[in-house]
Design brief:
alpha/beta, eight-stranded parallel beta barrel, 12 strands, 28% strand
């Protein structure tokens, strides 16, 4: 059995890490370069960096900042925000990213998934899916959760996998920042739908929530921000807790 992964997420705006609730009411949460080093030293399995306003502001990601973060860590590093073409991916990989995270551009033009997968390999292409329940249906949102699309979450994920996506980051906007737990039922459905790794995101508030998402949600990894940024849970303590609950992790 593959070890479950614990992944801190750096949501970056104007060069600073921020965190909010349900994708709004953002608060400053620190310097991303310093935080990246700390998380790598604490035993994080990977790090995700998302430039959360790049798409909305119609600009490219902050490659210089990505480079600085990459220089300070020795763990796999996924980067997203404003990626829309092969050139964008090349820039980020050259800056030190191991994988790229795409969202809005893929929803607008799904063919970009296939193009990027053919150019760089599926293992390098991570699809971020921001989802929210609208009138009883899980809908896909883009532009940092600001805009609802017509796409239904499960059908979109299946389409993206078939196009070449190698991993899914599934973020429940309804759960994001609430600290009430991950969207375990939805995550389990996604995990059963596609044979690629599924990273659960949104709602972590306690160590037991990670047990739930791995045991009930069947996720391959769990991504969190607030509880790590504000030192509510230490990654080392979390991993020992998971191990005590018979969940395979790298200690």
């Amino acid at each position: 059995m593959l070890a479950k992964r614990i992944i801190p997420c750096l949501d970056v705006q104007n060069g600073r890490t921020v965190k909010g609730t349900n994708f709004v009411n953002l608060k400053d949460a620190g310097d991303p370069v310093e935080q990246g080093k700390i998380y790598a030293d604490q035993g994080a399995d990977e790090l995700v960096f998302l430039d959360i306003t790049a798409t909305v502001e119609k600009r490219k990601i902050l490659a210089d900042l990505v480079f600085k973060v990459a220089q300070g860590i020795n763990i796999p590093f996924s980067v997203g925000g404003g990626i829309s073409c092969v050139e964008d991916v090349s820039v980020l990989l050259n800056a030190g990213a191991d994988k790229v995270v795409i969202n809005s551009a893929a929803v607008e033009d799904p063919s970009i998934i296939e193009k990027l997968a053919k150019q760089f390999g599926s293992q390098c292409i991570v699809l971020a899916v921001d989802t929210k329940v609208v009138e009883g249906i899980n809908k896909v949102f883009v532009s940092g959760g600001r805009r609802q699309t017509a796409r239904e979450t499960l059908s979109w994920i299946k389409q993206a996998y078939e196009a070449g996506a190698g991993e899914i980051i599934l973020t429940s906007i309804d759960h994001d920042g609430t600290k009430n737990g991950f969207a375990t039922e939805l995550t389990a459905r996604v995990s059963g739908l596609v044979p690629i790794p599924v990273v659960a995101s949104g709602g972590a508030g306690s160590m037991n929530h990670f047990v739930d998402i791995f045991q009930q949600g069947k996720s391959d990894a769990a991504l969190a921000a607030s509880i790590f940024h504000f030192k509510e849970v230490a990654i080392k303590d979390l991993k020992h807790y998971l191990s005590q609950n018979d969940i395979e992790v790298r200690l």
